[in-house]
Amino acid sequence: MASIDRTAYPRFEPIPHARELTEYFTPTAEEIAFGHTLVRRNASVFTVILLLKCAQYLGYVPALTEIPSAIINHVRTCLRLPAHLVPLSEPPRTLRRHYRALRAYLGLHPGHSHAARRLAIAAVVDAAQVLAQPADLINVAVEHLRRHAYELPSFPTLDRMVQRVRTVVHNRLFAQVMGQLTPAAMARLERLLTTTKIGERQTAFQHLKDAPTHFPPEIGRSFSRYLLENTLVVAVEEQPHSCLHAPRAGRDTCKAWRMRVCCASGPGRRVIVCVASSG
Fold first, then answer.
1. Domain limits of the chain?
2. In which band, very low, low, confident or very high, does the pLDDT at 227 lie, cut at 50, 70 and 90?
3. Taking the C-alpha atoms of 200, 206, 210 and 216 in order, what is their torsion angle to the nearest 10 degrees?
4. Element (H, E) at 75
5. How much of the chain is helix, strand and coil, in % rounded to 5?
6. The model's pTM
């Protein structure tokens, strides 16, 4: 399961700043009037306005128990309600009716609908072609859902969906690469994962992942030829590249060969090697 802290999934700050409370959680006269048209009792109005401001901030309606006390106290003060008044826990049927009214007022489409699910899956399928981290894929789904005014599903729901889609897409990519390998190429890649000398701790594959050091352009060209001759290169792209190891004046004229080396031993083992040379 991906960590919610590493994603852009909206959530409350443990201790909201006073400026955030004023900017995001102060109800307008129109919103207060909407609350009074929906319910009558002060405790119920308090609940509706509180959920309304939280849904505006998060993109989904949270549970009352998840709302920080600082936000509750701020909304209570703005509504000029007694300090002892707490948000009313409505029955589930009443809450569902409130949720529908809040979505209609905010222009949010239900996040549990088939349309929302199809939109999120399509976005993650496209992103999984180039992204591997679940947190990045969750961010893509959140961005597309909010852009199209869909209420966000719960984080565990998004995480499970992303894990399933990511597994399907990446298995398809791995199968496509494996299907292009000849027996000789597979044997050559297998040798990258084994040591050749007694007591040797690092394989050739580990050496390929070593950080590059500064070297003259002719060594870079020689190294790139070595890689092309001794490894299976599925894709080679020659493109302008800003070489961080080159002098600042020569960075614009630096080119790089970007090589994807796919290992046949086990799915998902990939490394991208960038070799820079001037000219």
1. 4-106, 114-178, 187-278
2. low
3. 80
4. helix 69-78
5. 55, 10, 35
6. 0.68
